[in-house]
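Section 3.1: Structural characterization of target chains.
Under the original work plan, the team committed to producing a structural model for every single-chain target entering the pipeline before any wet-lab resources were allocated. The record below documents one such target. The sequence was received from the expression subgroup and is listed exactly as submitted; it comprises 428 residues.
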Amino acid sequence: MQLDRTQSPPFQAINEVRLPAVQSATLANGLPIYWIAVPQQPVMRIECIFNAGVWYENGQPGAAFFAMKMLAEGTSQRSSAEISEYIDRYGAFLELNSGPDRASLVIYCLTRYLPDVLPLLVELLTDSTFPQKELDDLRNITLQNLRVNAEKNAYVAGVLFRQNLFGKEHPYGRSQQPEVVEQITRQAVVDYFDKAIHNRPFRILLAGQVGELEVELINKYLGTLPVLEPVVNGGISVSVAMPEPVILAEKPESLQSSIRVGRRLFTRHHPDFFPMLVTNEVFGGYFGSRLMKNIREEKGFTYGISSNMVSFRNDGYFLIGTDVKKEFTQQTLDEIRKEIRILQTEPVLADELETVKNFMAGEFVGSLNTPFEIADRYKTILLDDLPADFLTNYVANLRAVSAEAIQQMANTYLAEEFLSEVVVGGKE
């Protein structure tokens, strides 16, 4: 039988998703623990999540980043090299993350080595010494990375865009600055660690081959830690000034321009979240989007252009981003606005909308292949206090979005007077 390549293969539309059950308990000291048991492979991930991101720095810019990164740089019992050697000995992997809203310590390991990994985890959380030499080394590495990034139009455009939307001092608009990194002191890092991490409440999320034995073992180590009152947000100002409509950062030596267009939006709690999510996908959210077809395939201005919805715990924004040759900058901006006007004035055809919904449903299901990916999805619910059925109803909420709703979203949230434009490079 010869394959007819002119015909699309048959497929089954995805209308619902069934996820493994999430179990929860409370450790002896009151710390909440959640786990997703997928026992097929003998591996697990332990994630300790703190309210200790940039949002909680309270006048100590940079402290959250350095406090988390320095946890594995030495304790009273081990040097940084000894900590790395210990982790390697058990084939484990350590991640230390700090973001706008929270910070996390993550360890991947074989389940059978959990009894060996947990003592080190406790040691990092309770006995880190923040050696001056390692802090100096991390500071120098960070400064070097900033110098390199400062030469990249795309990085600068992203920084300027967020600063313009939220303000330079707002947690969601703040970025690492060389002068701040140079001035960070060990005492500031230690103070932040004591205020936001050391003996402070955190949530524990487990995924993989996890059962009652592993939960009991974690209770033995983490359930005995003293827990103080949570860090209090010290009256952070969340007021945001009106962003500038256009920011142009000229770089005469640059052959390309980085373009960022967008606006502040909302969190996942907003009733328009799912309609706007589908609107974004039609517009620029995947490889077959309208922006890609127009600006990449038809005009050849760029290798790639996309739009995204970024959601934090307390706010969010919509972003269109691309990099083009300087001489195509204004034409690209004009085409972006043209596509917005079409979305505002012409309903999306049924075939296109069905294709987008099928793609989004498939992408969502495809992001649930491993226990770690499932935990990442569940983490969204846990950390942003979303309804328990947010994930199980995800596909149904996508399917419910109509062409009329997309047109309404485009007129409500993509109106030109609400969009800010940042260009790094130039307009020729």
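The radius of gyration is 24 Å.
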